[in-house]
Structures are given as structure tokens and as C-alpha cells.
Amino acid sequence: MTVPPIDASFSTVQTASVHGRSVSYLRAGEGPLLLLIHGMAGTARNWDPVIEPLALHNTVVAPDFPGHGDSEPGGGDYSLGSLASGLRDLMVSLGHDRATLVGHSLGGGVALQFAYQFPELVERLVLVSSGGLGPEVGAILRAAALPGADLFIRATAGPGSVAGGWLSGALGKVGLRPNIDLAEVGRAYSSLSDTDRRKAFLSTLHAVVGTDGQRVAALDRLYLAESLPMLIVWGERDPIIPVAHGRAAHAQLPGSRLEVFPDAGHIPQLESPGRFAAVLQRFLDDTEPAEFDGAEWRARLSGR
User: Fold this and answer.
1) Per DSSP, what are the bridge partners of residue 259?
2) Average pLDDT of each block of 10 consecutive residues along the chain (304 residues)?
3) Cα 159 to the center of its chain, rounded Å
4) Catalytic annotation, residues
5) Residue 244 and residue 153: Cα distance in Å, rounded?
6) How many Cα atoms occupy the beta-carbon half-sphere of 259 within 13 Å?
7) Contact (CB, 8 A) for 54 and 280
8) d(Cα 193, Cα 188) in Å, to the nearest integer?
């Protein structure tokens, strides 16, 4: 399978100053806000193939996390709570009161945290190969959490590094196919040759992943999202976060929708962009934005 060409010309790259730091984001379209949240070591460009069709009916904003893409590094706090707060601050600074959150991988965990911290701002929740739904995670990320990983990454992450062949072979052994999964992991790994990007990656990774798997799980708080329209999208062949996590979350929230792409891996929006955009837009068309009910929220928290 070859990587399809990406037309990045439809969206515009813009910047905003949030707490004195520059945040880069892609923007396109007009309508209700779709906030697209990328994954670990990713960038807003991970959404390029789906921005144009989604922007036909929505305002699409896809930011780079601090220290990722073209955004300046953050202040050192790369926890889920801090990343969620940064997205809230960007959203409000751009003049938006509410949004449908679409989070991929780490971005799914951030979206879950955002919905927990700021439920009044969330209209719908879309989780794509999401983190935060169970301890299991691919060997690649567990290895990156090992002591000394910084030195290894610093020595091998540069473009054209002799480690490239070794990395491709290693990724193949743990299940990554020679397609978009592998191409994107290779691109993300090469970006870590930059000192600031590498520090941001490792700080973000250590906040959510240890050598024994994911540190953070939202399973005990999923019940709070019972009335929130939720779509869960996963690739059946995901080698990074198992599709079983998506199925378990769907079973816990029977009102949610689950879409499993049988031939996709960890990045379905890149591997099957047409289907992904169609599934997401249909979900948006078929559901009404949630209305936050403070009394209902309090009742759930108190077990009533």
C-alpha cells in the first residue's frame, strides 16, 4: 500500500498567542466548531486529508500541541490536564464557546480530559484510536519510556540516520505494516532530532506512558459522558493501542457509536480519509449538540 498524496492547500496555517506563547493551527470552513486534536509526536498535518470535506459544513481548527509542529514549547507541563486547558484557552481566544472534539491517540486522551474538566464547552466527543481507555500500549512507546531513551533518540532521530533501516525492521516486527502507519511513525521519529521537539515528546510521553503501559485511564469516569453524543473510530489492525479498548468503551457506553475500519491501523484518518470523513460527518448530521446540565452532572458525581 502506498501513501496517498496529501493536498495541504485547502486549510490555512494561522497562529495565536496564548499566555505569551505562539500556538500554530490549521483553519478551514465555516459553521459549528470541530476541534481536531493530534496524537503523540504528531502535528495538525495528521488531519490534512479530511480537513477539506469536513470544512464544507464546519469550522475546522486543528492545533499543534506545545512543542509540536510549529507551536512554541510549553512551560514544562505536558500533562493531559495542561494540554486540555491549553486547547480551552485557544478555543476561547478564537471566539468559540463550544466544540465537537475529535481526538486521535494521545489527542483522544486529551479530549476525554477536556470533556471532564470543561463539560459545558463540549457538544460531542469523537475518539480515534484513543489513549486513556486501558493500560495496554505498543512496545514502541513503552521502549521510549525507558531510562536512557533520550540519549538513543538524540543519536538516531536525524533524517537519513543509519538507524532508519533498523527502525523500519523493528516496527515491522511489532506489527506496523509498510504503509501510512510506518511512514507517519518515521516522520514523527525524524522530527525528534530537534531538541525542543524531543523534550516536548518525552515530557508528554512520560506524563501518560510508563514501561508497563498507559499510566492514565478514564474508564472510571466514562459514565459522566453518558448523555454526550460519542463516536469511537478504530483500525482493526492497530498495533499501538488495541481495538479492544474501543470495543470496551463502547460496551460501557451503549449510547455511543463504534466504527471499526477492518484494513486500517493506528491512523484511520490518513489510511481511509474518505470513509473517515463520511463517518464523522454522518455522526454530526445525525446527532444534536449536547446541552450541559449542571444538576445532572452533580447527580452523577454524587451517585444519584
Assistant:
1) 233
2) 46 92 96 96 94 96 95 88 96 97 97 96 98 89 80 67 46 50 66 80 86 86 92 96 96 95 94 97 98 88 78
3) 24
4) 105, 238, 266
5) 30
6) 21
7) yes
8) 10
